[in-house]
Amino acid sequence: MLPASCSHRLVTELQGALAACQKKEEELQQSIARCRVLLQPWEVPSPPSPEPARSTETKPAFTAHEPTPKELKELELLNQALEKALRVRKGISQVQSSKSASSGKVAPSLVTAQAGPGARPRTSNPKACVPAKPPTTSQRASGRLKKPARVSSHRGKAPGNALTHAGQPDNSMPIKGPAQLCPLPSQGQVLGLPTSTPVSVLREAGTTGPSPGPEEGKIQPGLRSEAFTLEEKGIQLQLPLFYKKIVSRNSSLWAQVQHYHSSADTAVAAAKARFLKRTKATFDLPGPAISLSEIQEEVTRLDQACHLLTQHLEETLDVNGEAATASLSWEQEYHRLVTLEGLQAAVERHLLRLQELRDAEEQWLGPRPVESSPWGSALGLGGKGSHGSTNCLVYTSVEELQTMTALKLRVAMLKQQIHLEKVLMEELLPLVKSESPAGPAQLALYRAIHSQLCEAGERFSILVRDEPSV
Amino acid sequence: MGLPGLRPRERSGPGALPRAISALSRALRGRPRPETFRKAKFDLPEAVAELWSLLFSLLWPVHQEGAVAPGDPPEALEGQIRFVKWVLHCYGYGRRHFYQLPEVGSHGSYELLLAFSWLLVYLSLPERFLYLNCVYQGDDAWICSCKDLASYPVPLALSCKGRVDIRYVQWLLGKLRFQWRSLYASQQEQCTLLNKIHLYTRGCHPDPSIGHLSVPEIELLRFPESSKQMLQQLESENSCLEAFLEWKHMELVYWQWMDTVLDANPIGIPNADKQDVFLPEILQYCSPKYLTGEMDRVQKNLEALRQRLQETVNQQRAAWHTKVSRCSQRLPRLPELSTAMMKEIQKTVECELAALEQGCGVKSWSHRLQRLVFREAGEPSHSGTHQMTKVIQVLRREEASLEKTFRRLQEECQQELAILARGLEGVIWILPP
Predict the structure, then answer these.
(1) DSSP conformational letter for A44
(2) What is the ipTM metric for this complex?
(3) Cβ of A220 and B245 within 8 Å?
(4) Contact B190, A31 (CB under 8 A)
(5) What is the DSSP string of B151-193?
(6) How many CB contacts within 8 angstroms connect chain A with chain B?
(7) Contact call for residues A199 and A216 (beta carbons, < 8 A)
(8) Could you tell me which of A435, A6, A428, A447 has the C-alpha nearest to residue B163?
(9) How near does any CA of chain B get to the CA of A102, in Å?
(10) How far is B378 from B384, CA to CA, in rounded Å?
């Protein structure tokens, strides 16, 4: 058993690290589920008047099918992600929170419908009576992905069955499928927004269409009455006009904001400075010479500086390899010496600054010097850039993206590992040193500590008891 | 850059102040009413409740921003007032009278107006608020890993008098390793899916520098009903931005008015009541105790680095002097290194270290959210974009340096434990291969 304080600290640190990982994992799973939904066959958007009874009516049709365990697992993940998304959305929109109360029950039924094999034959939107033109990529489309709408009556059958209907060119027929045959309830419902919500955004944005229905029809010709996948028809997608308008207005406004930020009005700046100065003159509460938040910023900066200096040191020592010191040219060797001396000076400076901060914290003054905002400069980091591309990170292949994220994870992981190693060292090394004679329990502890501290817990040393022979 | 339809004349004159305040109010999502400000100037109690809740609603999100584990906002006015007082204290706001305001919110609107205006300048509140509520419609990528896997406090339930066995610690560490692996797998999958989505929608984005659609944008098409939220948010962001620009244009009037507010001072300075102010510490990361702990930690790291540098520099210097003296025995001056060259090297190093001080070029943009954009190799890339190769390069450097640090720590432990192992009698210690 480890001592109580040691136990407490180690367990706290480790649980904290685990919780951080779990949080990250949840975020990732949520994002994966969102992507998967988009990559699955697309159902044509439902009309903005779904009957709530629909989802309950469709349920029995799908219980006839046995989903595979893999599908069930995916389903569960999807459910989790959707529930979470729902919760997040609820939190944001308090206005609609009352309306979305029922949607929690709807969400699972959606996913049942989507993940079950029976859900694959898609029915069309009953109101989408527009004669659909055949999809351009129909040769590639597998039967269950581009289901003609009439197959909705066969929804209870297996995908294999549906395949036989795939080739029938009956998609020019007006579709009269009753609403309850649609296996997918409106997505709007699922994500917590009732479809009856007035489309105020669209009207405010000054769109020509009175409702999203006709608008939708205009922007996506040929995508109406068929289920399709992003792979087949993604290239034909077009963002709605009102969205484009909002976004372009948004970026031009941000550009103006950035402009204001870079070119400050001198009269305003002077008036603000005057106000700060006058207010400061009335400060009569004793406090530290530097405000706590400024100390905190400074300490974070020093921490970061220490990290960067260490990194630079490693790199300096790494040039040409440590073993090859003798083979360094005069320039290289001198460069290294000067760099090291420079680093040394920087560390001294930082230590001095830290001492100053400590003194300032202890030194309590009356009116404090609040000169200028330490936050103003940091603000440039936020917001959207003036131009769309200024904040873009370009990648050229999936491998590149994967390498980047893997490296990012590796760096985060190493930071976590180093932090934990330091904590373990602080807690466990004194333990080993203080306790002297080696009983079996003690030896087991040594072995565990050695493995953890020196081998990252991946390998173990062997301890053999060598009983002195009599 | 002026707003269309607003001539300079309109920046002053009657009605300018209410207009300025109303613009500010809309930029802050319609919270304060202009009338409240006028009442506060005369310290009327009607304005108190609105100003407290304004201050709280502005400061709370700002302080949840950096927190790893966001908490729940206090419901009661009392808790909100305490929070506001503590935050202002952390920023070094020093009007004693403000901290003495009753927590029932019965009076003190003048003090609150001063505090609010002070925050407007000191924290650049409207700007901060805009940035905080920014709606992103791209596939976002953070390059910096400073927030990744940052540990956060978890409530502990330790049994057995709070003591655990080392095996439990080992088990937790093993679990953590397992988590890392699963994180890696999920990340790779996410990359593949994202890339597919980008690939399938190429050419669909109106902005040619972006080219393809993002997940939120496709969701807008796929689920038009549920994506209305994003549109609404963007709309409201737009109106906030418009209001902000209007405020920026008329701000001067407000500050001139604040001058008269300071002149008015209905309370009277100096404040005769010098009783002590007690504030409960609310923000853990801003409390003196936490800061002292952080300072200790940074000091320890810096001192360890100093120690290491000391040793390295001594070695290096000795080696250098040997080399020089060996050379100068044969030659009158250094054969290959002139004084001018040495000066040049010194200058180069100075620049390198100065760049390091400023946190490197990459650091300045790496803390921002980036929109992930796919472009096949060979396609022309627009200026202002950041290339993945550069990011990868930086990350590799960081990885290498961290690996070294980690290995050094392990070696340090190895040495410590080796000394100990030698002291163990009757036990043979066989290290893993």
Answers:
(1) P
(2) 0.81
(3) no
(4) yes
(5) ---------GGG---HHHHHHHHHHHHHHHHHHHHHHHHHHHH
(6) 643
(7) no
(8) A6
(9) 15
(10) 17
- Cα separation, A403 vs B85, in Å, equals 46
Which of these, B367, B398, B380, B138, lies nearest to A396 by C-alpha position? B380
Dihedral-angle region of residue B149 (phi above 0 means left; psi in -120 to 50 means alpha; beta otherwise): left
Contact of A46 with A182, CB cutoff 8 Å? yes
CA distance B82 to chain A (A): 17
The residue whose two tokens read 């001067």 is B252
Q: Token pair 């791209």 is at which residue?
A: B138
Tens-binned pLDDT, residue by residue, of chain A (470 aa):
788 888 888 998 899 899 889 988 998 999 999 999 888 887 665 444 433 433 333 333 344 455 566 667 776 777 777 777 767 666 555 444 444 444 444 333 333 334 334 433 444 444 433 344 434 333 443 434 333 334 333 444 334 333 334 334 334 333 333 333 333 333 333 333 333 333 333 333 333 333 444 344 334 444 455 677 777 777 777 888 888 888 889 888 888 887 777 776 788 888 988 998 888 888 887 777 778 888 888 888 888 889 889 888 888 887 655 555 566 777 888 888 999 999 999 999 999 999 988 888 776 554 444 444 444 333 433 455 544 435 778 888 889 999 999 999 999 999 899 989 999 998 988 888 776 666 777 788 888 888 989 888 888 888 777 766 55
Return the residue matching tokens 């709007």. Answer: A188
Q: Output the CA torsion sign for B164, B167, B168, B173.
A: positive
What single letter denotes the amino acid at residue B433? P
DSSP H/E element including B105: none
CB atoms within 10 A of CB A430: 12
Nearest to B179 among A22, A89, A248 (CB): A22
Q: Which helix (H) or strand (E) holds A310?
A: helix A292-318
Compute the distance between CA of residue A453 and CA of residue A447 in angstroms, rounded to an integer.
Answer: 10
CB-based contact A268 B305, cutoff 8 Å? no
Contacts with A161 (C-beta within 8 Å, 6 or more apart), sequence order: A154
Q: Do A448 and B167 touch (CB under 8 A)?
A: yes
Mutation for testing the B interface, residue in A454, A467, A470 having most B CBs under 10 Å? A454
Q: Can you tell me whether residue A461 is helix, strand or coil?
A: coil
Site of tokens 């939190």: A91
Closest CA to B226 of B216, B234, B235, B236: B216
Q: Is B304 exposed, middle or buried (0-12, 13-18, 19+ CB in 10 A)?
A: middle
- Residues 6 or more apart from A271 whose CB is under 8 A from it? B252, B255, B256, B259
Tokens 């985060």 correspond to what residue? A412
* Residue B164: how many other CB atoms lie within 10 Å: 20
CB contact under 8 A, B189 and A285: no
Alpha-carbon torsion, ordered A298, A302, A308, A314, to 10 deg = 180
Listed in sequence order, the residues at least 6 apart from A125 whose beta carbon sits closer than 8 Å to its beta carbon are: A44, A45, A46, A47, A175, A182, A224, A225
Kindly state whether B347 is in contact with chain A, defined as any CB-CB distance less than 8 angstroms: no
Interface test with A, best of B189, B225, B416 (most A CBs within 10 A): B225
Q: How far apart are CA A357 and CA A246, in angstroms?
A: 47
CB contact under 8 A, B145 and A373: no
Nearest-neighbour CA in chain B from A161: distance (Å): 27
The H or E element spanning position B429 is: strand B427-430
CA dihedral A358, A362, A367, A373 (to 10 degrees): 30
